[in-house]
Specification:
two-stranded antiparallel sheet
Length: 425
């Protein structure tokens, strides 16, 4: 289905869609546009030798933790089939698919290691169906091998797909390094050395980004008499770069499925959410065009609330997530957040504001007055409703973006404060 416009709010677009589809057709057309990403398949392949940490990465990319290992079925605790088993050293001999819990069309595949008798490197890409994947992650727990380099070359030159090199188990590496280096331990120097070693093994002309992954986002290690906090930002950076490497609906689909709290991820998510607003506004136009007084306001209220809730969930500022933050950081988190938010954004913490609701009611009054005039009244009603919803959702998204960014900033500062307090003890 074609995209008839890049913007919303003008009566010309509403008129064109009305002439082509009629009112019910417009609503179906627009709803399909909004939900199109739900029908898009995304396939990510993860390859590496046995013990490289593929299962841990596959779980983290799908927002699963060890708490998700088991599920309750008919009152009985059973293994969760969506959870990739961690800690086993068995060699993968088959391609194992692991779908996302909330969207089974997005799947991460655990590929058997290359260079074995069963999967020689020369036929590896064909046996693994490389052409069917959208992106690849190549893992190692220490150094990359020649077969890893050859896999990357095939992906780049033959299939022309995005791929990423990642070195896993960095938390264990940092713990061991601190134990050996004592007070001379330097986390950043260790990261730089490991990155250099990985690039030397790959022998590329230009050094590549090596993602240094760990089971946790930060850990505290004992370095002689010192306690040093080590962070692993590549855990989130890999997620963001996988999303950025994809285009169109594939990018939207995986962006709305992967959870990551960082400034760049928030910016990326806001861009995706902003793309939905023009289509939501056109649904509002359908309600505004209906020659039935009083119909538009309930349609718009439901639409705006639903989209507002969706924005909050994607930006990790929904009620459930905010309660978790307060449980982790205490009431101080909520107090600090309220203090740094602008007066325009603060009300959006609670949901759709009274100002938004009053604007919907005023819009309804204008539309009902216009509907006294057949045909032209419907066009005016559609245009007013479409434009109002478009501008209101823009305002809501702006407020939600500020809340998400301020949340991140408050949590980072509280983490730093906690570190300083520990050092002073």
């Amino acid at each position: 289905q074609e995209d008839t416009s890049e913007t919303a709010g003008g009566p010309s677009e509403v008129t064109v869609l009305f002439q082509k589809y009629g009112l019910p057709g417009i609503q179906n057309f627009v709803q399909e546009k909004i939900d199109a990403y739900k029908k898009e398949t995304v396939k990510i392949a993860v390859t590496g030798q046995s013990g490289a940490g593929k299962s841990s990465l596959i779980n983290r990319l799908r927002n699963l933790t060890p708490k998700d290992r088991k599920i309750e079925v008919n009152g009985q605790s059973e293994k969760n089939p969506l959870y990739a088993p961690v800690g086993t050293t068995e060699t993968t001999t088959d391609i194992k698919p692991y779908p996302f819990p909330d969207n089974p069309l997005i799947t991460i595949y655990d590929l058997p290691g290359a260079g074995t008798e069963k999967f020689p490197i020369d036929s590896y890409s064909k046996k693994m169906d490389f052409e069917n994947y959208d992106a690849f992650v190549i893992l190692t727990k220490d150094r990359f091998l020649e077969c890893d380099k050859r896999i990357a070359t095939m992906i780049k030159e033959v299939w022309k797909k995005p791929f990423f090199f990642a070195r896993t188990k960095m938390d264990a590496t940092m713990t061991e390094e601190a134990k050996n280096e004592l007070e001379d331990f330097d986390a950043e120097k260790t990261k730089k050395r490991i990155t250099t070693e990985c690039n030397d093994a790959l022998a590329d002309r230009a050094p590549r980004k090596i993602y240094l992954l760990a089971e946790v986002n930060k850990e505290e290690v004992n370095a002689g008499p010192n306690k040093v906090t080590v962070t692993f930002p590549d855990n989130d950076q890999l997620k963001e770069d996988i999303i950025s490497s994809l285009d169109g609906l594939k990018r939207t689909a995986i962006a709305f499925s992967i959870t990551s709290a960082s400034q760049s991820m928030i910016e990326m998510m806001v861009e995706e959410l902003d793309n939905r607003i023009k289509w939501c506004a056109l649904i509002s136009a359908v309600g505004g065009a209906m020659p039935i007084p009083g119909l538009s306001a309930p349609v718009d209220m439901l639409l705006i609330k639903r989209e507002s809730d969706f924005q909050k969930k994607q930006l990790l500022i929904d009620t459930e997530t905010m309660k978790k933050h307060e449980k982790t950081y205490g009431q101080e988190f909520t107090d600090k957040l309220n203090n740094v938010l602008s007066k325009e954004s603060r009300p959006f913490l609670l949901g759709v504001t009274d100002e938004i609701l009053s604007r919907i009611v005023i819009t309804e009054i204008i539309e009902n007055s216009a509907k006294a005039y057949p045909i032209i009244g419907s066009i005016i009603g559609a245009s007013v409703s479409c434009t109002t919803t478009f501008l209101m959702l823009k305002q809501i998204l702006k407020g939600h973006k500020e809340i998400a960014l301020r949340c991140l900033d408050v949590m980072n500062k509280m983490d730093i404060k906690e570190k300083l307090n520990k050092k002073q003890m």
